[in-house]
């Protein structure tokens, strides 16, 4: 029967007690946690945050080693801070951020590609003072989804560009932004003034018409008064 060839680190994980495989038991002697899902755009970068816990006393000058696997729990190593080494698919694209003495950090994958869409498992290794080397790994990895950068870059500016342009004009060039309002206000004032002038002229003409009508009316005496004057004075025409 065919048996797969395991690296020393993988063989060690297989032979470890069940507690080391998950690190999540009632004793809580050690554990490691990482997010279940992450998404990032193609060409961008992603931070796989992790935190771990252990109760052992570390050996003198001991360093915490962090490794990253992909696809499955016993998948291939793509990064190991002990060597350090990189998988050819991730060369110069993975970096570890773990301050000395801290128990939380992140693994960054930059310049993301569509092929990077996978499941990633963080593994921690320490050298203890009395129990030797201890290695444990998260049971459930982080599923990374790569989104299309083209969709994000084309949809974003189309919705935000008009707003940005509008703000740029109003803030950067006050005269150009305020001139349409000044013209509109001037037109409104001019129209209102014209209407007022027309109304005043109309009132003046109306009063003049009434006055002229009154003078014409009283210049011609009533019919009864006209006949009386004619009878009294034959010269009255």
UniProtKB/TrEMBL annotation:
<dbReference type="GO" id="GO:0071944">
    <property type="term" value="C:cell periphery"/>
</dbReference>
<dbReference type="GO" id="GO:0016020">
    <property type="term" value="C:membrane"/>
</dbReference>
<keyword id="KW-0812">Transmembrane</keyword>
<dbReference type="InterPro" id="IPR013106">
    <property type="entry name" value="Ig_V-set"/>
</dbReference>
<dbReference type="InterPro" id="IPR051694">
    <property type="entry name" value="Immunoregulatory_rcpt-like"/>
</dbReference>
<feature type="transmembrane region" description="Helical">
    <location>
        <begin position="183"/>
        <end position="206"/>
    </location>
</feature>
<dbReference type="GO" id="GO:0042288">
    <property type="term" value="F:MHC class I protein binding"/>
</dbReference>
<dbReference type="InterPro" id="IPR036179">
    <property type="entry name" value="Ig-like_dom_sf"/>
</dbReference>
<protein>
    <recommendedName>
        <fullName>Immunoglobulin domain-containing protein</fullName>
    </recommendedName>
</protein>
<dbReference type="InterPro" id="IPR003599">
    <property type="entry name" value="Ig_sub"/>
</dbReference>
<dbReference type="InterPro" id="IPR013783">
    <property type="entry name" value="Ig-like_fold"/>
</dbReference>
<keyword id="KW-1133">Transmembrane helix</keyword>
<feature type="domain" description="Immunoglobulin">
    <location>
        <begin position="35"/>
        <end position="147"/>
    </location>
</feature>
<dbReference type="Pfam" id="PF07686">
    <property type="entry name" value="V-set"/>
</dbReference>
<keyword id="KW-0472">Membrane</keyword>
